[in-house]
Amino acid sequence: MRYLIIGGVAAGMTAAARLRRLDEKAEIVVFERGNYVSYANCGLPYHIGEIITERNKLLLQTPESFKKRFNVDVRVQNEVMSVDTRSKKVRVRNIPTNQEKDESYDKLLLAPGGSPIRPTIPGSDHPAIHTLWTIPDTDRIKQLVDTGNVKTALVVGAGFIGLEMIENLHARGIKVMVVELTDQVLNILDYEMAAIVHRELCQKQVDVSLKDGVSCFAKAPDGGVTATLASGRIIDADLVLLSIGVKPNTSFLADSGILLGPKGHIIVDEYLRTGCEGVYAAGDAIEIMNPLTEKKTAIPLAGPANKQGRIAADNMHGDTLRTYGGTMGTAIAKVFDLDVGITGLTEKLCRAENIPCDSVIIHPNSHAGYYPGASTFTLKLVFSPTSRRVLGAQGAGYGGIDKRIDVIATAIKGGMTIDDLTEIEHAYAPPYSSAKDPVNMAGFAAQNILNGLVRIITWDKLRSTDRSQFLLLDVRTPGEFANGSIAGAVNIPLDDLRERINEVPRDQTIIVFCKVGLRGYLAVRILKAHGFDDCLNLSGGYDTWQVATTVDDFEVDPGKNKDLRPAALVADKVFEVDACGLQCPGPIMRLKKEMDAIAPGEAIAISASDPGFYKDAQAWTSSTGNTLCNIDSKKGIVRAVIMKGGASLPIAGAGNDKTIVVFSGDLDKALASFVIANGALAMGRNVTMFFTFWGLNVLRRHEKISLPGKNLIEAAFGMMMPRGSGKLSLSRMSMGGIGDKLIRGIMRKKNVPSLEEMIHMALENGAKLVVCQMSMDLMGLRREELIDGIEVGGVAAYLEASERADNNLFI
Ligand code: FAD
After folding, report:
1. Among residues 346, 379, 416, 534, which one has the fewest Cβ atoms lying within 10 Å of its Cβ?
2. What per-residue confidence (pLDDT) applies to 561?
């Protein structure tokens, strides 16, 4: 038996090795037009990035090692020019000698793979424009990067390979820009999942241009490339990488009688047979069946290519006939610190294929939240509302994605339903998962929808719905609400909802949301129990809304980016500050304190684990007249390097002051007031806080002050009212003081400054704390009973300050 194989990488070499294991006596010949066989093309970007330092590690086999181990005749630099299926011969050209020869076969495997598409854009023959597919491509790009002359690179196309190259070029100190024709990176994902990848790219200072394409390339005066985009934008780059897709290498089959699909892929049946006797095909060059859409498609991935190679070999050998079940495109990529994975159908694809689907987005922890190193990730599950079958999943986060995508891929392959997901058994200990794994949680969430416990609305539906038709109810805490919410939302914290249920209108649709969706679900259940039938929960909560609706906001302004310089080059001295573990506004307050202590021209390099610090640090820097030298986020730790001075200072008091009326003496409300006040102070704003009625208690001294001349009512008031911030109770769930103690303990544990510390910080940073004279008189309080550093004033003092303010709060 003489087996010929065309193509010596994933599918071809797998088949060759398998055939040898099945048949020791057969003659097996592999023709490979390149110089290398069996190399790890998936590892190529990482060699350029010098993550895989040894080039040899990419070369898994050589013709010699393959001959020795498998007795296979591997002929490199031999290109098959044509196939004659009637006479069962292939025509082979020896590339070095340019001689052609016919080779006959009993069985033939076509595994020629694909090649990157090179668009016919004017100027694309410039020597600095590359594609990446083979070892020689890698050598060319790496040699160029190794010269140190590549300072800027433009990646055209934001698919998997483009994104991997962005990361690896960036790792070599190159400023990277990417241009993508569609409105999202990683077009195979649903938009809101791709937005997470987009955010990661922008946080790594990658300049992302969406909805744009290259119109032409030209030679730049310095020898680099000038790319003109359809939008008119001009980009200069020392290196350009085209990664806009692959096409199958099947032109040599033109007159063979082998059937090709509309895009040139080889058509095979379920046994990987072409229609021609003895000819099989596998790998990137074939059309496969997507078992979920039941439609033919092409999915160029290494896993399917290897598996097809093995099945094709079994069938060529012919003892048994094995079917190939198709490919549903399970894939994963690392984009800087972010892992992003997909399996099965997206919502987008379901819509395009008219497949009914529902979806749910959850934000679980990668493992038990209390065990160090846990991070929150986003998991989207797509499922059928009728059969309840799992159709697909997408995940993005800083750990735990591969495991969940693999489990769900297995579930899809096994035809499981969302109900099956709830019972999937997983190996659990705190470092690895939670007692309810995210896969179970996704199943529960889907079950709640299909069983009618909750109706959901997706972020894009919400965005396109007429706002006058519903009430948007934010059930997060006042502090979370103050940090940002969806425009027009009303805040009733979940824990207050039962008591404030009368504030919820009965004649409107209620759309509830929280941070990630869980509290929103609980709120919907409470509302339903109180007779509100028309209420929905926002899928994925505010986190998903925010990332999906702020893609433009994350766009890196190329002008701004140019100013980001290594602090070491511009600052006289850089001081490291560790603000990890501090919650908002802790990191900003710490930053301000440290910046106050250094001289102009010196810099602070501050690290914080609060993800909001990425945006806060930039906002703080631009509003305080300091210079952002660098900012990045690695594995959830934001590190900003900020030099003191260097930019024009905002004019304090120029209509951007903040005034807060503190009416309440509740612990939580006082805390919220001081969080906002300290945040504004850290931004360089003037803050005036006006304490009236019960708010006076926040500023009472802890110790008892005996003052002569108080009448009975004044003395009684003094006794009944809490003496100072330490005695304040929560507005809800105080539970006779247990709740107050609990919250103070949690704050300590989570490094949130106490109320007393926040009052102290506010005073130190120049807040004006004015107590209302009239309220003091009514309640019989004297100045001596209040803490130092405050002023006593009338309403005019507050009103005067409020005229210079752009923000007045009544708490
Ligand atoms: P190939 O591996 O392309 O091999 C085909 C071979 O056939 C080529 O060497 C070609 O020279 C040869 N050939 C073509 N025509 C002829 C002819 N007429 N005569 C002789 N020889 C011929 N997939 C993943 O699943 N995960 C990843 O992380 C991943 N990363 C990747 C990163 C990069 C940079 C690249 C380029 C690909 C990546 N892939 C990844 C895709 C994966 O490598 C391919 O899906 C897989 O290699 C396809 O295998 P194949 O055997 O069909 O084709």
Report:
1. 534
2. 37
